[in-house]
């Protein structure tokens, strides 16, 4: 039974109410310069500013004088712009607002003041939302399509939608008796809320072109081209201009295409029927306002707003929002589902989602009686609706917070620093030679364009675009390409269970009824019944009757629709369901005809089954809620002589047991439930209650009142099979050292069983269950926790290759045990033991009975400890978690789900390793292209620095050949190498400024510089060499290569080095396949190599003329150039393979790197590694490792020291690594607050925690029970030892 209502919530009750409360009750009486505004999932910091005439005049004067350069710099920095344009002021006086979101993105928004016309007034909701107050004017600003209004009396900006979303339930109920709004009120509310339109306005092409053209990348292109044209490099400059225009046009085309696609997906306007001034009127949906009474048609329309159902029932399809096309029944808001005696209960989108008709959902069917309309009151419009919020999340995606991106900018700054050195070098030597000032400026600025490659940003997207294309071919669609690189760093994958790890459908296995034992007068379970046959069941087959009636199924166009679980169980009963056609006039006079909440579904049992009636009607339905873990119906028999009503309820065994009278529950109830759950079966408990009341009272009674004192009827056992692909994928992820976590709404023991079956619970790790005791408190008043050991998975079902056994891998930081927890216990730890939360999420791999908001909270907590999180779900109650994760993968039929960045049309988790493999390939490709582009620019920088020494340079056509034919073509086909077929056990590097990357680039540059300088010197010592002299009166003297072949020699060496760099940095394994799988790249490399050989060894006359350089007179020296190039290439490949790969990558945990990290830790903590610490490390690590080599012993010692130091240094390693080091090899950290219980009866009879005496006799006292338990960690270090 899946929960859908919670996914559609905009925020939890607590956060929304606290938002409104803080907006009104907790604000200072006087406005301030700064405020925090919480609206839904957004928390904004706003700062008020006010412009002045003096600042405005100065701003435009500087912009004009500097030809727009001053304005351009301010455009790139919103923070600087606001400081120049305006001065800080109180929020109520501001005409400009600086808005900072959760991701530290700065945006400036103008404040607008709306004034009422003479003799008129405007309206705003009051702070309680129960009435509209009249005002003469109000200020407001918009941020990402949401409107924030200044409430004068409260000194606060807030969205009116937040007030409307927390109005009292009684206020909404009173709308049912309203005759609707009048035209004057509608006009006023339109000014306050704006039109009800989710519009994606297409920006003019010229605006898109201009905004894209003034980005730093294209401005740098303009700067470069201007330098080249002024230096008469017209040919190459023209090519760059053409390429830039093509790139600019392509970018704008893609933006316009995405705008059109999004608009086609979400733009929807139609005619709706509303109740206004007591009459039904047909209006455009754009004219809907909050408070309108919307009349819902019988079927076949799409909702254009969020509305609360006032009467009747409506069956909707919410697949547009959730990706799940199962029809959902919405019921009227009665306000009686909770204690609302005093009318103080406020509306909440979480708890009352079963009453909300969400914008974008399709109306399948409505039910009403006696000619009454099915009515709903509009509560949110436009972008404040749920659909609007999802559209906003697409239009304004969360910025990619990834180290690679930050390192990219840092490295560009590093290149700019090198360019600055070249800039001053050029100025110095040209001043020494006496060049004119114009030539000095042009030549010194030209070196900047060489060092920082203009094509770098475009080249960086090659890998991402190719990975996206390959994923699309595998039916995995991505709406956020920037997320692909992040997928390469994923180190934990969270999976929903039902429909994700297991099959969507459940198979009915058996049922167990409850009967009274004649001898002991106690309740007992019947034997296992394989069919739902009423014969032999107690209570006149009440168990089968309850299963046949307690559901939310409906027949639409002759087809039975509803929750898959309800369908499976209903089909097993053999009953039939018919939809009523509405009462006749005679029926409408009866009691049942007076209440339109009565369900018209008529259910009939099979003719050969005997029941107390021939047909039954569902009079009232309490829909399923994951927070309540149950659903209920009130059923009557219209044809019975004495009509009586019965409540049937079904749900989780724990919840139904708590609602039943204890004497009706078998004594071995929990043992039976646990026995089936431990075998992975899903259980549903069924109960009933006879109601002594009439139809009128039944239609108004509160759910909490009627769902108590139930009588247990029995259990239904269903089998949820693991998908065939699941085990293989989990093993594959485990081999890749990617942690796997199950997050399910099912029973804890059922989740544990499935986790064992699919390999999430590993046989080489212990498993523990954490639970809580509501009736027990500790000395601090906190709920008592308990912990007990459970069984791990069988080694028979786990791939042996997934075990990590090599000595190096054993030193990887990992947990040594599993924990499993349920949602209620998770909530207890969150609120009462927050200090344990980070440790818990690092070692807990099974989370059961998790509500949708808890799933999101789990993802956020994993991110807090610096995990890179992927979440895979079916797109239903996982929407919040899918959006919160770094990479959300929705298993949906839709080509593009707006709930997650990735959507797989193949409904199994095999898409997850595909996404990770392509993410790793894209990430490594981005690394490779960046290093290639950096190496290319620095190689060219080295060549030019040598030529500048002789007052020369490469020619225009030589630049053109290098940049266009060698570099650009190589970069374009660089990313076509496909991802590797398997996930490597070694994660890819995520830091561009890592030791390996820096050593690689600097090492290659040293080899390149040495070879070029060698050929430079060799040329100078040739007998035919004559020094270059500047021709008198030649303005183009330094545009040419030297009239002697030194420039030609350097050019000849460098062209081979560019090719070598492309091959070196296109390395495949272990994240991409070899370059031979990239046929275009191989062909290009071969062609370019042959062309280079021809140019250097046997240059035809037309090539010499084209490249504008003189041939080297002797073939032997040309051959020497090739030989030097070959030698340098061998050295470059050898350095990358022997130094970078072997030393810095393959052996990243060896003595050198560990000692380097220890050195860093020592610097950070200022606590040197003492001799005693070294002895301690050797003793702890090497005592039982006699068979290891000396190298491994030293490495292990250093690794132990690293872990010890990490426990005391908050800056060492990632946060989850430090946490894993802290929790140790046994769950001692939680035993300090939890009572240890005996192991599960099904587990092997062994010591629950495998305790053994320590060699040194150290004793650790268990503070829980006062016993002196002797613990020794299996992880090679004592978790209690202080650093």
From TrEMBL:
It is a multi-pass membrane protein. It catalyses: ATP + H2O = ADP + phosphate + H(+). Residues 270-394 form the P-type ATPase A domain. InterPro entries: ATPase_P-typ_cation-transptr_N, ATPase_P-typ_cyto_dom_N, ATPase_P-typ_P_site, ATPase_P-typ_TM_dom_sf, ATPase_P-typ_transduc_dom_A_sf, ATPase_P-type_domA, HAD-like_sf, HAD_sf. It is found in: Membrane. Its main location: membrane. Residues 175-228 form the Cation-transporting P-type ATPase N-terminal domain. Keywords: ATP-binding, Magnesium, Membrane, Metal-binding, Nucleotide-binding, Phosphoprotein, Translocase, Transmembrane, Transmembrane helix. Its EC number is 7.2.2.-. It comes from the Eukaryota. GO terms for molecular function: ATP binding; ATP hydrolysis activity; ATPase-coupled monoatomic cation transmembrane transporter activity; metal ion binding; P-type ion transporter activity; polyamine transmembrane transporter activity. GO terms for biological process: intracellular calcium ion homeostasis; polyamine transmembrane transport. Residues 1244-1283 are annotated as: Disordered. CDD domains: P-type_ATPase_cation. Residues 1265-1275 have a biased composition (Acidic residues). GO terms for cellular component: membrane. The chain crosses the membrane at residues 57-74, 205-227, 233-253, 408-432, 444-465, 929-951, 957-977, 998-1024, 1044-1066, 1078-1099, 1119-1140. Residues 41-150 form the P5B-type ATPase N-terminal domain. NCBIfam families: ATPase_P-type, P-ATPase-V. Belongs to the cation transport ATPase (P-type) (TC 3.A.3) family. Type V subfamily. This is Cation-transporting ATPase. It comes from Pristionchus pacificus. The gene is WBGene00111515.
């Amino acid at each position: 039974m899946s929960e859908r209502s919670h996914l559609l919530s905009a925020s939890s009750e607590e956060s929304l109410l606290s938002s409104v409360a803080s907006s009104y009750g907790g604000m200072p009486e006087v406005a301030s310069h700064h405020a925090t505004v919480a609206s839904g999932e957004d928390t904004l910091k706003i700062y008020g500013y006010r412009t002045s005439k003096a600042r405005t005049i100065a701003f435009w004067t500087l912009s004009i004088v500097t030809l727009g350069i001053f304005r351009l710099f301010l455009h790139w920095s919103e923070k600087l712009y606001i400081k120049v344009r305006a001065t800080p002021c109180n929020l109520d006086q501001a005409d400009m607002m600086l808005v900072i979101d959760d991701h530290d993105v700065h945006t400036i928004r103008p404040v607008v003041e709306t004034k009422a016309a003479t003799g008129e007034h405007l309206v705003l909701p009051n702070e309680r939302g129960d009435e509209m107050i009249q005002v003469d004017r109000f200020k407001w600003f918009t941020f990402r399509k949401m409107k924030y209004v200044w409430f004068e009396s409260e000194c606060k900006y807030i969205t009116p939608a937040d007030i409307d979303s927390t109005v009292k339930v009684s206020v909404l109920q009173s709308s049912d008796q309203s005759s609707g709004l009048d035209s004057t009120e509608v006009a006023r509310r339109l000014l306050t809320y704006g039109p009800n339109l989710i519009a994606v306005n297409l920006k003019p092409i010229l605006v898109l072109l201009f905004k894209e053209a003034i980005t730093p990348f294209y401005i740098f292109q303009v700067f470069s081209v201007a330098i080249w044209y002024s230096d008469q490099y017209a040919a190459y400059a023209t090519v760059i201009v053409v390429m830039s225009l093509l790139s600019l046009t392509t970018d704008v085309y893609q933006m316009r295409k995405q705008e059109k696609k999004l608009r086609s997906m979400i733009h929807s306007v139609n005619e709706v029927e509303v109740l206004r001034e007591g009459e039904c009127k047909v209006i455009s949906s754009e004219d809907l306002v909050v408070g309108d009474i919307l009349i819902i048609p019988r079927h076949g329309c799409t909702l254009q707003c969020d509305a609360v159902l006032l009467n009747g029932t409506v069956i909707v399809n919410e697949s547009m929002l959730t990706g799940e096309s199962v029809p959902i029944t919405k019921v009227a808001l009665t306000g009686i589902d909770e204690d609302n005696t005093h009318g103080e209960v406020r509306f909440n989108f979480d708890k009352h989602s079963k009453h909300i008709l969400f914008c974008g959902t399709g109306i399948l069917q409505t039910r009403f009686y006696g000619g009454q309309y099915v009515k709903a009151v509009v509560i949110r419009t436009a972008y404040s609706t749920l659909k609007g919020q999802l559209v906003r999340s697409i239009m304004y995606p969360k910025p990619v917070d990834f180290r690679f991106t930050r390192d990219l900018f840092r490295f560009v700054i590093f290149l700019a620093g090198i360019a600055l050195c070249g800039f001053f070098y050029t100025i110095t030597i040209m001043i020494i030679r006496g060049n004119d000032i114009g030539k000095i400026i042009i030549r010194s600025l030209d070196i900047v364009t060489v060092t920082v490659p203009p094509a770098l940003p475009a080249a960086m997207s090659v890998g991402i675009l190719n990975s996206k294309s390959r994923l699309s071919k595998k039916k995995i669609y991505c709406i956020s390409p920037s997320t692909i690189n992040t997928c390469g760093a994923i180190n934990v994958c969270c999976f929903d269970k039902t429909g994700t790890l297991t099959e969507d459908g459940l198979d009915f296995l058996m049922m167990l009824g409850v009967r009274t034992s004649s001898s002991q007068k106690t309740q007992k379970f019947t034997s296992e019944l394989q069919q739902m046959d009423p014969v032999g069941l107690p209570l006149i087959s009440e168990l089968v009757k309850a299963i046949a009636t307690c559901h939310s199924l409906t027949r639409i166009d002759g087809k039975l629709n509803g929750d898959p679980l309800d369908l499976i169980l209903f089909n097993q009963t053999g009953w039939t369901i018919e939809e009523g056609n509405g009462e006749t006039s005679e029926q409408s006079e009866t009691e049942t005809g007076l209440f339109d909440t009565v369900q018209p579904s008529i259910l009939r049992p099979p003719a050969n089954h005997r029941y107390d009636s021939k047909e039954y009607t569902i009079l009232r339905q309490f829909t399923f809620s994951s927070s309540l873990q149950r659903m209920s119906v009130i059923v009557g028999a219209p044809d019975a002589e004495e009509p009586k009503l019965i409540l049937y309820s079904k749900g989780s065994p724990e919840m139904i047991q708590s609602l039943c009278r204890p004497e009706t529950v078998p004594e071995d109830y929990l043992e039976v439930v646990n026995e089936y759950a431990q075998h992975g079966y899903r259980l549903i408990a069924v109960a009933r209650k006879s109601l002594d009341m009439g139809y009128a009272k039944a239609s108004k009674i509160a759910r909490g009142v009627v769902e108590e004192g139930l009588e247990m009827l029995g259990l239904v056992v269903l089998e949820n099979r693991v998908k065939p692909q699941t085990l293989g994928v989990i093993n594959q992820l485990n081999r890749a050292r990617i942690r796997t976590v199950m997050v399910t709404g099912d029973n804890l023991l059922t989740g544990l069983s499935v986790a064992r079956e699919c390999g999430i619970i590993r046989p080489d790790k212990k498993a523990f269950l954490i639970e809580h005791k509501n009736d027990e408190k500790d000395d601090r008043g906190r709920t008592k926790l308990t912990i007990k050991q459970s069984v791990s998975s069988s080694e028979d079902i786990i791939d042996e290759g997934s075990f990590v056994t090599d000595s190096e891998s054993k030193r990887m930081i990992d947990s040594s045990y599993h924990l499993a927890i349920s949602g209620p216990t998770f909530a207890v730890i969150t609120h009462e033991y927050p200090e344990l939360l980070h440790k818990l999420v690092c070692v807990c791999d099974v989370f059961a009975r998790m509500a949708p908001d808890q799933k999101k909270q789990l993802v956020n907590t994993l991110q807090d400890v610096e995990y890179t999180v992927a979440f895979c779900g079916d797109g239903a109650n996982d929407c919040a978690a899918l959006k919160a994760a770094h990479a959300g993968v929705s298993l949906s039929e839709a080509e593009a789900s707006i709930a997650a960045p990735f959507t797989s049309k193949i409904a199994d988790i095999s898409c997850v390793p595909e996404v990770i493999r392509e993410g790793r390939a894209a990430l490594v490709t981005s690394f490779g292209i960046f290093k290639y582009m950096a190496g290319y620019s620095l190689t060219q920088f080295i060549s030019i620095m040598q030529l500048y020494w002789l007052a020369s340079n490469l020619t225009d056509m030589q630049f053109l050949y290098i940049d266009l034919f060698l570099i650009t073509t190589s970069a374009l086909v660089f990313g076509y190498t496909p991802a590797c077929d398997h996930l490597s056990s070694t994660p890819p590097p995520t830091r561009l400024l890592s030791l390996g990357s820096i050593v690689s680039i600097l090492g290659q540059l040293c080899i390149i510089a040495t070879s070029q300088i060698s050929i430079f010197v060799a040329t100078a010592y040739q007998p035919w060499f004559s020094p270059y002299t500047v021709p008198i009166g030649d303005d183009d003297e330094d545009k040419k290569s030297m009239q002697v072949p030194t420039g030609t020699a350097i050019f000849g060496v460098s062209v081979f080095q560019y090719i070598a760099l492309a091959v070196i940095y296109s390395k495949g394994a272990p994240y991409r396949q070899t370059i031979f799988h990239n046929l275009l790249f191989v062909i290009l490399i071969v062609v370019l190599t042959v062309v280079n050989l021809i140019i250097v060894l046997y240059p035809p006359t037309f090539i010499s003329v084209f490249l504008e350089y003189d041939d080297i007179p002797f073939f032997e020296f040309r051959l020497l150039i090739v030989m030097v190039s070959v030698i340098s290439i061998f050295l470059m490949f050898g350095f990358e393979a022997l130094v970078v790969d072997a030393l810095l990558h393959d052996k990243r945990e060896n003595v050198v790197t560990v000692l380097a990290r220890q050195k860093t830790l020592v610097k950070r903590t200022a606590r040197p590694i003492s001799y005693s610490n070294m002895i301690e490390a050797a003793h702890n690590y090497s005592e039982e490792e006699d068979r290891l080599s000396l190298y491994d012993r030293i490495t292990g010692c250093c690794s132990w020291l690293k872990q010890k130091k990490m426990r005391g240094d908050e800056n060492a390693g990632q946060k989850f690594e430090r946490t894993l080091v802290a929790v140790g090899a046994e769950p001692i950290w939680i035993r300090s607050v939890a009572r240890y219980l005996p192991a599960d009866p099904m587990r092997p009879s062994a010591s629950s925690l495998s305790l053994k005496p320590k060699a040194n006799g150290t004793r650790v006292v268990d503070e829980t029970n006062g016993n002196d338990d002797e613990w020794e960690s299996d992880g090679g270090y004592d978790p209690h030892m202080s650093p």
